[in-house]
Amino acid sequence: MADIELDERKVKILNAIIKNYLETGEPVGSRTISKYTDLNLSSATIRNEMSDLEELGYIVQPHTSAGRIPSDKGYRFYVNNLIAAKDKEVSDMQEWMIEKTEKMESLLKNVAKMLATNTQYATLVSAPSVVSNKVKFVQLSAVDEHQVLSVVVMDGNIVKNKIIQVEKPLDNETMLKLNMLLNTNLNGLTVDQINLAVISRLKEQAGIHDEIISQVLDTVAETITEDDDLQVYTSGATNIFKYPELADSKKASELLTTFEEKQSLVELLTDNGKTDETGIQVYIGEETPIATMKDCSIVTATYELGDGVKGTIGIVGPKRMDYENVVNNIKSLKGQLDKILKDEDSKT
Amino acid sequence: MADIELDERKVKILNAIIKNYLETGEPVGSRTISKYTDLNLSSATIRNEMSDLEELGYIVQPHTSAGRIPSDKGYRFYVNNLIAAKDKEVSDMQEWMIEKTEKMESLLKNVAKMLATNTQYATLVSAPSVVSNKVKFVQLSAVDEHQVLSVVVMDGNIVKNKIIQVEKPLDNETMLKLNMLLNTNLNGLTVDQINLAVISRLKEQAGIHDEIISQVLDTVAETITEDDDLQVYTSGATNIFKYPELADSKKASELLTTFEEKQSLVELLTDNGKTDETGIQVYIGEETPIATMKDCSIVTATYELGDGVKGTIGIVGPKRMDYENVVNNIKSLKGQLDKILKDEDSKT
DNA sequence: ATTAGCACTCCTCATTAGTGAGTGCTAGCA
DNA sequence: TGCTAGCACTCACTAATGAGGAGTGCTAAT
């Protein structure tokens, strides 16, 4: 791609500038590079090269007579061409942690937390979307005379429940019949297959005349289809204070509010098909779909739990984030999630 | 109490200073008071009185030749003596919202959110502690050959569940027997009554020799006793950016981290018995039990769900928070929570 | 007891000058 | 032709200075 316009030396210099800037966060000057790199060149030569790089749009001067910092294009080049994809295992901690947890919810919370601790950036994890998930098991039980408990187990062992208030108790026989009915009719269906038609067919079979049964069936349907209000888990949002370029009151406030509200984060996590073959996606600066994150970079990965049921992991940090570390971390984690969730699924 | 050392005029002036400071956040000078109040006094007179008030510790000068701001003692006096406890109803929105939600979790989330929107401060709500909550209903069901679902309903309709992996399927009869056994033995017990002794008695009755049954019973016990990792819901944490005295990078970072980690918030929410007859507790500045909140004030209230099962609502804001509004808000909310939770409970 | 007046304090803000990091350019060198 | 040394220039950052103003404390007069 950009190989035509950049000779080897320019690439080396650009790389050096970015590496240095990632560490310090300060504009980097020609003298620094002249000493930092192994190509023995004077600062003057570097200056000429830097001038070229600036003209080509890879670096930028915050003001005349300051050093240079990478532009979005520069970062992009770095991410595309310069990251050594070392597949080294990222800490055993991860595996251990994942082994231990069994509930989806706490698993994802832990994933977010661990990733935040590991990277020192803000992280977000979305739960696998349930829309195309299948019903595995349904059960109604009489808790007491006026309350019926409806429990649904989905593929991937996601358990949902709801308590139904009923006017008068359901007798045992009806209960049994309903359970049979529900399981034979709903098992194997996905959430979006359970629509009004299915429900009314159920009601017919159960004896549509009974008001209570009708109500119960409605609630079961609700239990299943109820969207668990967009499950996004975040962690380490306050890490942004570690990066001066994001820590000023105004920016931090906006960013943290975005994180707190979670709503808009969904946009980020819904797979837009632009992920590359590794399933990992990097947004730099202006590329991000969320306005309040214009000064950030975001790395996301989608993980799968079989059958196209997908969730997403994301990391948000300053543009000068340690892309190498982050990408490796997220890649390793994605792999493990893919694995564990499929395993758990196949255990059934 | 302080009635001896403060004559009526001083009280009026102190009140005026605090009111004014609550609004502006700026130190308030003698001239301002001289015009603001109805007691026609010149600024010089006010100055003398303020000098006295300062000596008595109710107000403080941030630096020589600045106006005065209330000290913690001043705020305390204000809260104790000067707040008009108008019991006016706080927005119908509240009731409406509470009616609508049925799940404890989303109910509390909404409470936190609404309170944050209403007051523009940060809020936290802890779920009712489950320790002394009673088991109402237990059920095991075979999801498939290798998985058994354990569901427990507690008083207040809190539902817990867990999936148990079993080596080989349990036959219907055993299942039925176990369910009978569990319900007759556990119903009505509180969480902390369910200890090892109870469990082993259960095992004995069920036929201790069976490894699988033993495992299943252990997991049921786990399901019940498992602490739902300290359920604290927060909202509006980013509101602190609205108050310059808290918004600087360092303080905001500390505060928000405290909120994000939630762990330490528990300290705040565990009832320490110091609440007054209304169940409402106000911490001002140094009085707060959490170090990072030394520059804040906190108002908490405990709500009950019968039988001494308690949860807490809290508001965190700057010391110059609108105590009157906050106290009223929280009082009204507490009342409604008390009511609704008891109602729901008595519906059983 | 209250008030007017005045000197004083000290924060705030804008201006100024000094410093240094870093650049662009030019001329000289291999 | 490519590299380098040198120099003038730019501009953010810092500290010092001073004017302005809000507010106080004290004193003397009412």
Topology pattern of chain A, helix = H, strand = E: HHHEEHHHEEEEHHHEHHHEEEH
CATH domain class name of the largest domain in chain A = Alpha Beta
* Overall residue-averaged pLDDT value of chain A: 83
By DSSP, the count of extended strands of chain A is 10
- What share of the residues of chain A lie within helices? 40-55%
Rg measurement of chain A, Å: 27 Å
Within the largest sheet of chain A, what's the order of strands?
7-3-10-9-8
Described by strand count, sense and barrel closure, the largest sheet of chain A is: 5 strands, antiparallel
Strand-residue fraction of chain A? Answer: 15-25%
Short account of what is shown:
Two copies of one chain form a homodimer. With 348 residues, the first copy, chain A, is α+β, with helices and mostly antiparallel strands.
Can you walk me through this structure?
The structure is a homodimer of 348-residue chains. With 348 residues, the first copy, chain A, is of the alpha+beta class. Chain A folds into 3 domains: 3-70, Arc Repressor Mutant, subunit A (Orthogonal Bundle), CATH 1.10.10; 99-127 and 230-347, 2-Layer Sandwich (Beta-Lactamase), CATH 3.30.450; 135-227, Enolase-like, domain 1 (2-Layer Sandwich), CATH 3.30.390.60. Chain A is 46% helix and 18% strand. Chain A has 13 helices and 10 strands. A 5-stranded antiparallel sheet of chain A has the order 7-3-10-9-8. A 3-stranded antiparallel sheet of chain A has the order 4-5-6. In chain A, helix 6 (104-119) runs antiparallel to helix 13 and helix 7 runs antiparallel to helix 8. The longest helix of chain A is centred in the last third of the chain and has 24 residues, at 323-346. Mean pLDDT of chain A is 83; it is low at 96-101. Chain A binds chain B through residues 102-103, 106, 136-137, 139, 141, 143-144, 146-147, 149, 151, 153, 157, 159, 161-163, 165, 229, 235-238, 241, 247-249, 252-253, 256-257, 260, 347-348, and chain B through 102-103, 106, 136-137, 139, 141, 143-144, 146-147, 149, 151, 153, 157, 159, 161-163, 165, 229, 235-238, 241, 247-249, 252-253, 256-257, 260, 347-348. Chain A binds a DNA duplex (30 and 30 nucleotides) through residues 27, 29-31, 41-45, 47-48, 50-51, 61-67.
